[in-house]
Design goal:
Helix content: 10-25%
Number of helices: 1
Structural class: alpha+beta
Largest sheet: 8 strands, antiparallel
Shape: elongated
Length: 171
């Protein structure tokens, strides 16, 4: 073995020892901490219809128009149509969930269609939520739904029905 080879082995050993020493000094200066994890399970939001939205008994005219129910249940009619008596009713919903949760109510943005039992005639409805609570009190809340019904000229007499989806989410 030559002197050069012996020197190389010694340097490598010193380098390996120096690296271990540096690593050891880094560990000696480290500190441990404690982290915590938590999860809260809350009751899922539920929505229940209490009263069906009803635009009332409408006498159509020879001109297309609308029947609108506002947040107070007041009815506005255009196009010469008539609504008999107090037959229009806001839809009403109850929300059940976890107390203190903020909520958002979503209705179909493009409205929906109600159809005559003959399967041919229909009318479009644009919905509007009213009095939506921003937060559930004691796990409950309520709101109403009104909107605008588009009534055609000489709309075919009969009962028109349709369903829409109400989505309540925590926000």
């Amino acid at each position: 073995m030559s002197k050069i080879n012996v020197g190389m082995r010694l340097i490598m050993a010193v380098s390996a020892t120096g690296a271990v020493t540096l690593l050891h000094h880094g560990i000696a200066n480290a500190a441990d901490g404690v982290g915590a994890a938590e999860a809260s399970i809350v009751q899922s939001a539920q929505v229940q219809e209490q009263t069906r939205l009803n635009f009332g008994q409408i006498i159509p005219s020879m001109t297309a128009g609308t029947v609108t129910i506002d947040s107070s249940g007041n009815v506005t009619v255009t196009g010469g149509h008539q609504v008999l008596g107090n037959s229009s009713i806001l839809g009403a919903f109850n929300i059940l969930g976890s107390g203190g949760q903020n909520v958002t109510v979503t209705l179909p943005t493009s409205g929906f269609t109600i159809k005559h039992s003959n399967g041919v005639d229909q009318m479009n409805v644009a919905l509007q939520p009213f009095n939506v609570p921003s937060q559930l009190t004691n796990g409950t809340g309520s709101f109403t739904v009104g909107g605008t019904l588009s009534v055609g000229a000489n709309q075919t007499p009969g009962v028109y029905l349709g369903n829409y989806t109400v989505t309540v989410t925590y926000s």
